[in-house]
Amino acid sequence: MADEALFLLLHNEMVSGVYKSAEQGEVENGRCITKLENMGFRVGQGLIERFTKDTARFKDELDIMKFICKDFWTTVFKKQIDNLRTNHQGIYVLQDNKFRLLTQMSAGKQYLEHASKYLAFTCGLIRGGLSNLGIKSIVTAEVSSMPACKFQGTMQKGVTDTPNKMFQWILCHRNGRLRRLTKPNIILKT
Amino acid sequence: MAVCIAVIAKENYPLYIRSTPTENELKFHYMVHTSLDVVDEKISAMGKALVDQRELYLGLLYPTEDYKVYGYVTNSKVKFVMVVDSSNTALRDNEIRSMFRKLHNSYTDVMCNPFYNPGDRIQSRWALLPVSASSPGGPYSRVRIQSRWALLPVSDPVQVGPTSCVRIQSRWALLPVSDPVQVGPTPVSDPVQGL
């Protein structure tokens, strides 16, 4: 199990490294969690590309979430997600009862407020993976009792990056003046 | 013999497109662009009875009189399009599939490259080189990639010098997503022919 320890130790050092640089003024205070999350985001994008190389195409969002809970989590953390809940309207809750990155800390209430630092990278990992699969989301984590934790993902519907957006600004030449139309379904009169 | 390979992002702009330098580049760009519609049709639920929904390889998209166009879509909705010469009848389905697998492997490596931002044009000179070298009989297996702008068609494959003067022929080179491209001393007359 040596490879597991490698990532665990690297992750711990990463968190403390980011916070140390915050103390020395290189990073603004309060931006550390964002920095860790963005790191996780980029890693998640690359990881998902590698893991979905050989799998079949996904049918829908639920299929993607199941892939994340089973294959993705197993490959990264060597275990599956223990519980996946959804309200079928874009909110998913992944519960892990023994999160690998938190098992090294004591199981009581002592380090509860510090736990969020160690979850930021994983939140970014999930968000990056989902984003590369075409789902924009916001992922947050909460810990009620160590080492169990919950990741909540809120999928954003209706946010598309298609180039059609640029056609919402339609310029029409009317009576010698350029006017901007914001509704794309207005008939252009020249 | 594969005459053109294109990697298209999920927002339908090209990340990487290379074709054999001897022919009219624009024709291939149009072909790839029009094939995107066929790709979208195949991956939506419309034609469900015809194509296996779970497969990544899409097969022959459409044949023209000289060329055949094949497609492949990854789980991250990145599309690979390959244009193949019709005269080469010895090229079987399995070979096309293996070419797509190699392309997918190279693309995965590009994604994992920490210096690559997802969504940018694939600029790396070595990124997809194994693909061009391995496609059967491709004439650009001998080509050393000289041009800094991987998207601009290089007219002469053995041109020396990184800043070769090329005329912008591809209309995708002018889309806002790309960086402003510097053209050499030869003025570009009208790259976009009133499409």
From TrEMBL, chain A:
GO cellular component, one term: endoplasmic reticulum
Coiled-coil annotated residue ranges, if any: none
Location relative to the cell: Endoplasmic reticulum; Golgi apparatus, cis-Golgi network
UniProt main location, coarse: endoplasmic reticulum
Organism superkingdom: Eukaryota
Record-linked Gene3D superfamilies: Trafficking protein particle complex subunit 3
Pfam assignment, any one: TRAPP
GO biological process, one term: Golgi vesicle transport
Keyword terms, alphabetized: Endoplasmic reticulum, Golgi apparatus, Neurogenesis
Function: Component of a transport protein particle (TRAPP) complex that may function in specific stages of inter-organelle traffic. Specifically involved in the early development of neural circuitry, likely by controlling the frequency and amplitude of intracellular calcium transients implicated in the regulation of neuron differentiation and survival.
Quaternary state and interactors: Homodimer. Part of a TRAPP complex. Heterodimer with TRAPPC3. The heterodimer TRAPPC6B-TRAPPC3 interacts with TRAPPC1 likely providing a core for TRAPP complex formation.
Protein family membership: Belongs to the TRAPP small subunits family. BET3 subfamily.
Protein name per its UniProtKB record: Trafficking protein particle complex subunit 6B
Species in which this protein is naturally found: Macaca mulatta
